């Protein structure tokens, strides 16, 4: 990817975020419901309601509301949450690290698990194990993340309670954190009891998000390895006496990983969006859980800030995947 390509992607990213901002702003004001109605008391007078609407700028026209809001966003001011009466960026900054840690843990689990099974499938190609792996993987592909979450709650939280059902850390742990990245901070500061507890709380939501991703990695990488294994350079290495495992890992894998990487990047962005339901099921205090509360409370500034945050993550991840793909296969990127 050349510098001009990167600049074009960044320009498109800015335009895309602007489009997302326009769409979400308009949709939130079209759907039924008045956020002020969620805040007023039964004894509020019409004057009180009018003053509250004026305070949040809801008495202005749609175009004027958007101009004021978007101008503030460009200055780094996403407004004040209607339901929590706190700065929107402060709320997002406090919850985003939990979601990112969960999503990256699920990504690592999904890629490593899916990669190992795909390699096993490539080695077992033509044997009785091959169709069995395809059948099992097909079942995993058919089950969405929220169904995994509910199943894990019943299996590992109720019938065989080995992991915590909710939360991010045991309230009894009095560890003081300097950042909101609890998992990373507890590891680098050698607070291993806190690290183990945080990881235990993360296991079930991580599995719920990571298992569908692992199934996608298996299908994509297994097909790519099958195509790579019949290429001339692999056949030549086979004639030289290279073992099947070395053929897959040393020769085929490096050329098969490109399509898998691209699809994994796309799926990762979808997985971050999937944290909304999974975090709710496990009462995990991340950005997705807060998004549901914001929708229930008709908290327009908070919803807008969360949607823009998810949009920015989606765009940045896709740009990063393109850069990694270009680094791994520069000739293909130059040709593209």
UniProtKB/TrEMBL annotation:
Q: Name one GO cellular component term.
A: plasma membrane
Tell me the keywords, alphabetical order.
Cell membrane, Membrane, Transmembrane, Transmembrane helix, Transport
Any Pfam family hit: BPD_transp_1_N
- An example Gene Ontology biological process: transmembrane transport
Specify the ABC transmembrane type-1 domain's residue ranges. Answer: 96-325
Q: Entry's SUPFAM superfamilies? A: MetI-like
Record's subcellular location: Cell membrane
Where primarily located? Answer: membrane
Task: State the PROSITE patterns in the record.
Answer: ABC_TM1
Give the transmembrane ranges: 12-31, 102-123, 135-163, 198-218, 261-282, 302-328
Membrane topology type: Multi-pass membrane protein
Family that this chain belongs to: Belongs to the binding-protein-dependent transport system permease family.
Which PANTHER family does the record associate with it?
DIPEPTIDE TRANSPORT SYSTEM PERMEASE PROTEIN DPPB-RELATED
- According to UniProt, the name of this protein is ABC transporter permease
């Amino acid at each position: 990817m050349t510098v001009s390509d990167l600049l074009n992607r960044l320009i498109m990213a800015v335009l895309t975020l602007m489009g997302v901002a326009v769409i979400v702003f308009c949709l939130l004001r079209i759907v039924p419901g008045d956020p002020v109605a969620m805040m007023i008391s039964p004894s509020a007078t019409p004057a009180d309601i009018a003053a509250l609407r004026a305070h949040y700028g809801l008495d202005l026209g749609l175009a004027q509301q958007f101009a004021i809001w978007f101008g503030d966003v460009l200055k780094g001011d996403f407004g004040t949450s209607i339901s929590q009466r706190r700065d929107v960026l402060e709320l997002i900054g406090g919850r985003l690290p939990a979601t990112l840690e969960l999503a990256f843990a699920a990504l690592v689990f999904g890629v490593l698990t899916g990669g190992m099974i795909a390699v096993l499938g490539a080695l077992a190609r033509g044997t009785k194990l091959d169709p069995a792996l395809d059948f099992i993987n097909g079942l995993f592909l058919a089950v969405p993340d929220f169904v995994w979450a509910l199943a894990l709650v019943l299996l590992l939280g109720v019938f065989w309670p080995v992991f915590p059902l909710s939360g991010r850390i045991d309230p009894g742990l009095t560890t003081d954190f300097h950042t909101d990245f609890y998992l990373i901070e507890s590891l680098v500061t050698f607070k291993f009891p806190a690290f183990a507890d945080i990881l235990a709380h993360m296991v079930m939501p991580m599995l719920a998000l990571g298992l569908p991703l692992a199934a996608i990695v298996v299908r994509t990488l297994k097909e790519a390895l099958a195509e790579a294994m019949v290429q001339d350079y692999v056949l030549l290495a086979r004639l030289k006496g290279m073992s099947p495992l070395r053929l897959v890992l040393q020769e085929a894998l490096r050329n098969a990983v490109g399509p898998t990487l691209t699809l994994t990047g796309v799926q990762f962005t979808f997985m971050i969006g999937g944290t909304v339901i999974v975090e709710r099921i496990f009462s995990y205090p991340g950005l997705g859980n807060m998004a549901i509360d914001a929708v229930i409370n008709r908290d327009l500034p908070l919803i807008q800030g969360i949607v823009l945050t998810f949009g920015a993550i989606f765009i940045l991840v896709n740009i990063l995947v393109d850069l990694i793909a270009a680094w791994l296969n520069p000739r293909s990127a130059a040709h593209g």
